[in-house]
């Protein structure tokens, strides 16, 4: 699934997060006779009810490095699958909910070009400090229905239940907001008692702590807490129900290893988008080839450098891009394979992060898919 010199590419259509919901729902007790994919953990096959818990930011490698801190998850059936490219929450959660790669749903990153020369922060749904929900309607930006248009119940953070990004990747779902992790367990239990066959739950504590503190005692304490949440959810499953645990991406501890653009590269660039570990460079008119050459000279020893056309042709996004989706990206991408990030002075909120993600290293791309059944 990749090594130091080759990017770990998504297994779109196979053992990838874009197939998890279809596999979980399609191979429950009420599904047809088609065989379950080999990568779907056995406890989820034939389950009468399925709870899909998304643990934001808990990669497979980070989980397996901490067996004593997460005994419940490490004892569950399953293994690693891939996330999408870029390995970032906006693209990955959308792929999970709508069951499609970024090339299809169009949420191809965290910060995307819109309206010519503006950058949309997808998670906040803002351009600069402006709320973009009216100027860039989320339902039109990403038109695919989540969960096969089943209006599944979603247990997610109460403060994002009406956000632009939530509307973009979960339009039409029945929202149940939580403010404390214990509410996740209570709400899921109630929905299962009411007979819901599929419940989607989301918890972002691991990701938040990793960004702020990096790897260390505080991160380890959060892994313990996340494992306890998993155990509590298993405890409230009725007979015949399964808990399926997945993540959207892993992490790399970058710390203060944040580099500014080389002056030659910066001189050929009009704007930046993406994020520190998947940095898009937007070329000055007529300078795309020169920009790619300059970026390779400067960063080829620490990052994968691709033009947009090369990344698409190599399958990074899961297929060809419609012109309006291609316009959301830059001309050249820097995807570090070393634990560094590429600075964008226009995105000050990112600069404080210790752990980051977005690139195509195994630490970022491999995520757990685990299951337990009552």
Structural account:
- By secondary structure, the protein is α/β, with parallel strands linked by helices.
- The chain contains 15 helices and 19 strands.
- The chain folds into 2 domains: 17-252 and 360-373, Alkaline Phosphatase, subunit A; 258-356, Gyrase A, domain 2, CATH 3.30.1360.
- β7, α7 and β8 (174-178) form a beta-alpha-beta unit.
- α4 (89-98) runs parallel beside α7 (164-170) and α9 runs antiparallel to α10.
- The radius of gyration is 20 Å and the shape is globular.
- It starts with 19 loop residues before the first helix and ends with a strand.
Write the layout of secondary structure elements.
Layout: H1 20-26, E1 49-55, H2 60-64, H3 71-75, E2 77-82, H4 89-98, H5 102-105, E3 111-114, E4 118-121, E5 126-127, E6 130-131, H6 138-141, E7 153-157, H7 164-170, E8 174-178, H8 181-193, E9 198-203, H9 205-213, H10 217-235, E10 241-246, E11 252-253, E12 258-259, H11 263-267, E13 269-275, E14 278-283, H12 288-299, E15 303-307, H13 308-313, H14 323-326, E16 332-336, E17 341-342, E18 355-356, H15 362-365, E19 366-373
Parallel strand pairs: 1-9, 1-10, 7-8, 7-9, 12-17
Antiparallel strand pairs: 2-19, 3-4, 4-5, 5-6, 10-19, 11-18, 13-14, 14-16, 15-16
Assigned CATH architecture of the largest domain: 3-Layer(aba) Sandwich
From the N-terminal CA to the C-terminal CA, the straight-line distance is 32 Å
* Overall outline: globular
Q: Name the CATH superfamily classification of the largest domain.
A: Alkaline Phosphatase, subunit A
Radius of gyration based on Cα positions: 20 Å
- Class from secondary-structure proportions: alpha/beta
């Amino acid at each position: 699934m990749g090594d130091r010199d080759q990017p770990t590419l998504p297994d779109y259509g196979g053992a990838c997060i874009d197939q998890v919901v279809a596999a979980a729902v399609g191979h429950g007790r009420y599904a047809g006779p088609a065989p379950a994919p080999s990568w779907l953990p056995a406890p989820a096959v034939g389950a009468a009810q399925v709870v899909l818990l998304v643990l934001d930011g808990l990669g497979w490698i980070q989980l397996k490095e901490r067996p004593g801190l997460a005994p419940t998850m490490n004892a569950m059936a399953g293994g690693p699958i891939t996330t999408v490219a870029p390995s970032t929450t906006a693209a990955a959660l959308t792929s999970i909910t709508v069951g499609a790669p970024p090339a299809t749903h169009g949420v191809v990153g965290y910060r995307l070009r819109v309206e010519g020369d503006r950058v949309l922060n997808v998670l906040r749904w803002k351009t600069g400090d402006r709320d973009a929900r009216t100027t860039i309607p989320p339902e039109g930006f990403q038109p695919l229905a989540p969960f096969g248009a089943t209006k599944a119940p979603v247990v997610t953070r109460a403060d994002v239940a009406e956000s632009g990004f939530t509307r973009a990747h979960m339009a039409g779902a029945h929202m149940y907001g939580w403010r404390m992790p214990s509410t996740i367990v209570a709400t899921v239990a109630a929905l299962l008692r009411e007979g819901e066959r599929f419940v989607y739950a989301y918890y972002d504590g691991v990701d938040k702590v990793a960004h702020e503190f990096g790897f260390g005692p505080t991160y380890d304490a959060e892994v313990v807490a996340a494992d306890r949440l998993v155990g509590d959810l298993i405890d409230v499953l009725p007979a015949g129900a399964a808990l399926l645990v997945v993540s959207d991406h892993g992490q790399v501890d970058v710390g203060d290893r944040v580099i500014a653009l080389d002056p030659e590269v910066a001189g050929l660039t009009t704007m930046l988008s993406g994020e520190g570990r998947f940095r898009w460079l937007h070329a000055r008119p007529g300078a795309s080839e020169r920009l790619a050459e300059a970026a390779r000279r400067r960063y080829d020893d620490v990052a994968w450098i691709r033009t947009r056309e090369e990344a698409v042709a190599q399958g990074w996004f899961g297929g060809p891009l419609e012109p309006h989706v291609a316009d959301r990206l830059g001309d050249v991408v820097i995807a570090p394979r070393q634990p560094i990030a590429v600075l964008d002075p226009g995105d000050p909120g990112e600069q404080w992060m210790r752990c980051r993600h977005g690139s195509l290293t195994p630490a970022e791309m491999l995520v757990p898919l685990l299951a337990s059944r009552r």
